[in-house]
Predict the structure.
Amino acid sequence: MFEKILIANRGEIACRVIRTARRMGIATVAVHSDADRDAVHVRMADEAVAIGPAPSAQSYLSIEAILNAVRRTGAQAVHPGYGFLSENAGFARALEAEGVAFIGPSANAIEAMGDKIASKALAAKAGVSTVPGHMGLIESAEEAVRIAEAIGYPVMIKASAGGGGKGMRVAFDAEEARQGYQSSRSEARGAFGDDRIFIEKFVEQPRHIEIQVLGDRHGNVIHLGERECSIQRRNQKVIEEAPSPFLDPATREAMGAQAVALAKAVGYSSAGTVEFIVDGARNFYFLEMNTRLQVEHPVTELVTGIDLVEEMIRVAAGERLRIGQDGVQAQGWAMEARLYAEDPFRNFLPSIGRLTRYRPPAEGPRDGGIVIRNDTGVSEGSEISVHYDPMIAKLCAHGPDRSTAIDGLIAALDGFELEGIGHNLPFLSAVLRHERFRAGRLTTGFIAEEYHDGFSGTAPQPAEARRLAAIAAVVAEREDARAKAISGTISGQPARPRGALVLRMAGERFEARVEADDGTAARMRFADGAAMRVDSAWRPGDRIAAFTVDGTAMQVKTDYAGGALRLRWHGIDLTVRARSPRVDALAELMPVKLPPDTSRMLLCPMPGVVTAIMVAEGDAVEEGQILATVEAMKMENVLRAERRGTVARIAVEPGASLSVDALILEFE
């Protein structure tokens, strides 16, 4: 067994590998860019080596920089994590030439499966069902249009070297095919250094289901069941689960058998994933094979009890698999939610900045057979950089069945405190609570179909609003009691509940009175006569607390901002104004401040780098015309004109780094 391994990655996956290596008694080496010198994975490892500037091309993607770190530290093996060099056959060969083990498959397997065009031909030869399409390389946008029309719309335009949703576009007509080709090629070039593009038929009403495989260097290959990854946005997975709520035993067995056949055909060793697209009739088609550890591997580990990182290390050390196919026994259900640094209220635009508050929920067992796991690579005070992937954490819940796992994950999200940047936590809760998701009626178009106008938050149901209003009333009373105690007006005596409160939230008005409160239990009554009991030890200053309202347990985040109370629960984010009836009446007379007029400006919607300006000063533009492109967190974003107009001034040039709402151009 190895004595020391180097992790050629960063963030949560580097931390994940370090945890397993430490348990196995293996010393670890972290590598880091200048931007990551204070990162969590650097602090966790036994040794750390700086490998270059912040841009990944000069650090994490530099084979020579990684090799130099290996030489300096004497590491015997390298785990690549996912992304970066994890599927780079040249990297695997370079390590082999140094006499260092690559904790992954052979370079030949990476090469065969890494090329999406070659892999489909190999899969077809191995008897694996494949999606119809054009597997040759495409040299121009017009050729892409001709091929797409021959296949029949809709089509998927994909980067041959792609992965992680990058370099992928769906086209429903010629214009989308033309534009999709250009965007996919540009994005692929930036993400993978390889701009080859191919096209295949887009399966409508599809589900994205993948099979985890595990092989050793002695010809043994098994599968560990499937993961459902259909909840995606822009081809980037958001929520994953194991098993799939859709597969029946016969389909599961057939998919597993084909995944194993493909792995054997390519001589696969280590952990890998065979991805399939599945239609409504459970017909399945091979998409690609990822020759690395997947981001969503924790759900497979939770249901099988198998540590995939440990198995990868053992296989790389020459050991045989310790388990056969008959020994794989899935237990319960696991869900994973990816917490991203992106603002769902601004069309999921990337967000950067410092984590001013980062308090994830406690990991481990909970009531009801729930187990919580949080894979992360940040801590309070960490910086979320524009240079890297925006994922902050992967929060997982395992339970005896799907419904329990969903409820456990929602509760864990309620207990996740995260401040300082925009993030998708409320959106994750909203999806998990969605009736269609809970029923398992999933497709890869779920988010686009259910949130076609974007995400504007979750409105509470009437009963939920009433319970939240009761919590707001109790919180307001306790805040008032603290203020009176601080001023000295009470002289240590318990504060008497004040008169009626008017609570305004989410467009609703509640009038309520707290009749009694001993600090742990309160009795309050609404103007319509309805009474409620609120049990909670919440104290002023608490940012999160457990409340029980008439027997319903709720973990609610509380905070004051701008003189208003903010309550967050189950993806619901409410601003509550609690006032006396007289003050409330006067407040309603106050004029509303109007936002500034920015209709004649194109503002940068996210922090990023301007990659192209498509117009010039004096140009007349039409509604929908492309004005500029901005790259943020390895994704290219196209900015279009919202109306007709004439460009009066261009404020930036390509290559400029912009902050949110920075001016790009102005119209007359």
Remarks:
- The CA atoms of residues 520 and 537 lie 5 Å apart.
- The domain at 601-667 is CATH 2.40.50.100 (OB fold (Dihydrolipoamide Acetyltransferase, E2P)).
- The first helix runs from residue 11 to 23.
- The chain is about 30% helix and 35% strand.
